[in-house]
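Lecture notes, part 5. Sequence design as translation. It can be helpful to think of inverse folding as translation between two languages: the language of shapes and the language of residues. The source text, in structure tokens, appears below.
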């Protein structure tokens, strides 16, 4: 197995640059994700990595892509051990993109006493994992995780540092991959293929000039609400968002790594209050270069309707209690708070979700998913 320790900073930079480029290629060709996860595992320092989602209500899991976990143990996790995983709820409330280890969720000594560790983790020779939340809906999370073997030791500062270097790119690629849902994007049919997606799509140069837009993109420009064309340049209605887009497009011309955390999820709000979100995919490296070069484009901007706003962490805890416990008195007792406080949170959730009663709220929770899930 390739060592996760690099010879020097220059070699790390080269490996990181190559990895990031491959991550973005996987946004257009999902068949590349397994190889990307292998490279990511080696870079961060571990034998295995996964992209997966979990539901805190049903305590179920779904693996989108994985490398390095024996298929038997993957199936065991899906069938049985996801329900026994003691880190499930803790990871749910983690900060988006922040690398989190087992010891950040619970005392490690307690983790070693769990059935999950004894029956699923230990038999594989694993000891820890660094988990980064990519997206969170009301009850579900999508995560990128790199596992640690006993020969790697527990997650340390170096593991977290390396994880932080690649997580924003993995998140952007995963979000865009879900938006466009492509199996393949050949250079000769790059724009034609993207024309078929329901999200608005714009290919732009480094100055923000539109070199191609799909049908949904043209419809957005015609409406002139969130986005419009001014002198051929893509302009956002909100000045701050417009400046962010200009900075992102200028930076995209300098390569994948330069883009960093910019443009992962830019909010766009229509005059009627309808919310959309924009994601930027750089086109100057890897297999994407051929498609972008054909149109002198440095980036592709994808715009789609946003999912339901997620409640704040306190409201998330309250919402899960409503789903799992039941009525106002029961939730108040379970959480150790006054019934009036429960009713206040309930009113806020009704306002955010459009539900009129608790039964409707539960239906909303069960039916809602994030862009990365489902």
């Amino acid at each position: 197995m390739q060592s996760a320790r690099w010879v020097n900073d220059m070699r790390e930079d080269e490996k990181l640059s190559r990895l990031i480029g491959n991550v973005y290629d996987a946004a257009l060709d999902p068949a590349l994700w397994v190889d990307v996860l292998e490279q990511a595992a080696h870079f961060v320092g571990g034998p295995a990595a996964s992209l997966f989602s979990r539901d805190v209500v049903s305590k179920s899991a779904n693996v989108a892509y994985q490398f390095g976990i024996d298929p038997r143990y993957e199936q065991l996790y899906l069938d049985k051990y996801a329900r026994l995983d003691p880190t499930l709820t803790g990871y749910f409330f983690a900060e988006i993109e922040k690398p989190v280890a087992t010891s950040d969720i619970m005392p490690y000594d307690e983790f070693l006493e769990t059935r999950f560790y004894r029956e699923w983790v230990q038999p594989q020779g694993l000891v820890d994992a660094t988990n980064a939340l990519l997206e969170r809906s009301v009850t579900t999370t999508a995560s990128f995780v790199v596992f640690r073997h006993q020969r790697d030791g527990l997650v340390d500062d170096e593991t977290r540092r390396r994880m932080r270097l690649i997580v924003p790119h993995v998140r952007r690629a995963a979000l865009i991959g879900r938006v466009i849902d492509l199996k393949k994007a050949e250079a000769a049919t790059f724009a034609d293929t993207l024309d078929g997606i329901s999200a608005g799509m714009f290919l732009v140069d480094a100055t923000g000039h539109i070199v191609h837009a799909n049908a949904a993109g043209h419809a957005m420009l015609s409406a002139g609400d969130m986005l419009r064309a001014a002198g051929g340049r893509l302009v956002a209605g909100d000045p701050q968002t417009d400046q962010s887009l200009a900075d992102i497009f200028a930076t995209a011309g300098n390569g994948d790594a330069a883009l960093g955390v910019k443009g992962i999820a830019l909010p766009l709000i229509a005059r009627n209050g309808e919310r959309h979100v924009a994601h930027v995919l750089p086109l100057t490296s890897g297999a994407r270069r051929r498609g972008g070069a054909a149109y002198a484009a440095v980036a592709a901007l994808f715009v789609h309707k946003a999912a339901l706003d997620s409640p704040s962490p306190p409201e998330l805890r309250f919402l899960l209690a409503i789903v799992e416990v039941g009525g106002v008195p029961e939730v108040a007792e379970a959480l150790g708070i006054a019934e009036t406080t429960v009713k206040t949170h309930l009113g806020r959730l009704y306002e955010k979700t459009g539900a009129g009663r608790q039964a409707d709220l539960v239906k909303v929770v069960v039916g809602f998913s994030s862009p990365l899930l489902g």
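The translated text above is only one of many valid answers, since several sequences can fold into similar shapes. Residues 1-10, 181-189, 291-295, 367-374 have pLDDT under 50 and may be disordered.
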